[in-house]
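Worked example 3 (structure in, sequence out).
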């Protein structure tokens, strides 16, 4: 497999609080990796360093072999989709305009072609086209999450970052979104980094699972490896209650 994202000796602190400690992690192109751990373990900080929302204190992060610090931050972010919990949509924009927001920043965009792309993305995320002129306050939580996912995919990014993207949804809708994301990944083969605090979700979605504790990755592996060959007692206790 070809690596796309590489963390090399990454450390991040806020004052005396070390949030990420000497982190090393390689993510292959087209992989779906879930990062899980208790609150405050450093998983969201790790995610946000990929698109330079947070800058590490030391170490380097490479995408396609290039240090992201050497890249134009706007170009970097346009090639990285970002979907978060509750998907904060622009309240004054319709579904169409929310999804089209990033592509519209390009001066060369063809409006008719973009409208077709928006409708195609709505199909991909299973959102009925009738909602195209709705505003965010007129949508359910699941519908808004679909809009957010479509917006994250609108620039056809190589990498998709998802931070607790489904955790605010009702359990039934959450399962539907998980299933749809897996089906989407089968078609689109994006590199997905997915943060969650739900171990069952992590195991269901991820090709590989990274378990974090106190700013460090304590084990990375497939669901089978994590469940049958825990690296230490912490991982063993962490996976004890999982629905096998």
């Amino acid at each position: 497999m070809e690596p796309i994202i590489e963390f090399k000796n990454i450390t991040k602190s806020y004052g005396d609080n070390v949030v990420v400690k000497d982190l090393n992690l390689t993510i292959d192109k087209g992989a779906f990796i879930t990062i899980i751990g208790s609150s405050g373990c450093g998983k969201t900080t790790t995610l946000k360093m990929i698109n330079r929302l947070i800058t590490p204190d030391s170490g380097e992060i490479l995408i396609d072999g290039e240090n992201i610090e050497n890249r134009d931050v706007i170009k970097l972010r346009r090639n990285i989709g970002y979907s978060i919990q509750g998907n904060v949509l622009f309240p004054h924009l319709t579904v169409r305009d929310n999804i089209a927001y990033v592509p519209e920043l390009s001066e060369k965009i063809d409006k008719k072609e973009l409208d077709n792309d928006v409708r195609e993305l709505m199909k991909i995320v299973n959102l009925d086209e009738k909602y195209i002129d709705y505003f965010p306050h007129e949508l359910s939580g699941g519908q808004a999450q679909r809009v957010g996912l479509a917006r994250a995919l609108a620039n056809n990014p190589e990498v998709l970052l998802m931070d607790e993207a489904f955790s605010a949804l009702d359990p039934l809708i959450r399962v539907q979104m998980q299933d749809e994301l897996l089906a989407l990944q089968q078609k689109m083969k994006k590199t997905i980094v997915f943060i969650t605090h739900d171990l069952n979700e992590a195991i269901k979605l991820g090709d590989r699972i990274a378990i974090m504790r106190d700013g460090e990755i304590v084990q990375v592996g497939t669901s089978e490896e994590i469940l049958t060959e825990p690296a230490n007692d912490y991982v063993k206790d962490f996976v004890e209650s999982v629905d096998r």
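Notes: The mean pLDDT is 92. DSSP finds nine helices and ten strands in the chain.
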